């Protein structure tokens, strides 16, 4: 694991621990959002997107793959399988992050294989089971209210 991966995973663990240690707020508890977990948490699979071995496409082909990659993200989010996605803003081999609404790495792997950029070898994914707030399930609904245009 790279230092960047370790720092990111440590940060996510710290945020999760702080959420678990916070005061009980029974007056705002919503059983449906909590997804049957008394802590308001649920299982996900987190994916780290990294530069793949095949990045020698023409500029036109790279743009086509990026558009197909973004369309795949939209499709997975609309299907309720992708909770969160986004690129890292600095240059380097670590390109982005996904959080899948699935409970197994195998299911997440099958979903990643639908990505044209992964099929082309432009990106690769590293998958990890993750336990986080069930509130993440609301991110896409809220994002739709904030975005003036689609990606």
Write up this protein:
This protein is an alpha+beta fold and 151 residues long. The chain is built from 5 helices and 4 strands. The chain has helices spanning 3-21, 59-78, 105-112, 116-119, 139-146, and strands at 41-51, 82-87, 94-100, 123-133. It has a 4-stranded antiparallel beta sheet, sandwiched between helices. The model has no long low-confidence stretch (mean pLDDT 82).
Strand content: 15-25%
Written as H for each helix and E for each strand, in order along the chain, the element string is: HEHEEHHEH
Strand order of the largest sheet: 2-3-1-4
- Report the C-alpha radius of gyration, rounded: 17 Å
- The helicity comes to 25-40%
The assigned structural class equals alpha+beta
Structure described in brief:
The chain has 151 residues and is α+β, with helices and mostly antiparallel strands. It has helices at residues 3-21, 59-78, 105-112, 116-119, 139-146, and strands at 41-51, 82-87, 94-100, 123-133.
Task: Spell out the blueprint of helices and strands.
Elements: H1 3-21, E1 41-51, H2 59-78, E2 82-87, E3 94-100, H3 105-112, H4 116-119, E4 123-133, H5 139-146
Antiparallel strand pairs: 1-3, 1-4, 2-3
């Amino acid at each position: 694991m790279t230092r960047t991966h370790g720092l990111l995973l440590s940060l996510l663990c710290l945020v999760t621990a702080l959420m678990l240690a916070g005061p009980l707020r029974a007056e705002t508890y919503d059983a449906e959002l909590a997804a049957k977990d008394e802590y308001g948490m649920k299982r996900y699979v987190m994916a780290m997107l990294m530069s793949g071995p095949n990045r020698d496409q023409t500029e036109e082909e790279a743009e086509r793959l990026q558009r197909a990659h973004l369309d795949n993200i939209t499709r997975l989010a609309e299907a309720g399988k992708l909770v969160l996605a986004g690129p890292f803003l600095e240059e380097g081999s670590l390109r982005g992050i996904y959080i899948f609404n699935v409970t197994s790495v195998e299911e997440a792997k099958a979903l990643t294989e639908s990505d044209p950029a992964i099929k082309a070898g432009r990106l690769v994914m590293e998958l990890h089971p993750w336990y986080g707030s069930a509130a993440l399930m609301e991110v896409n609904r809220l994002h739709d209210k904030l975005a003036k245009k689609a990606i």
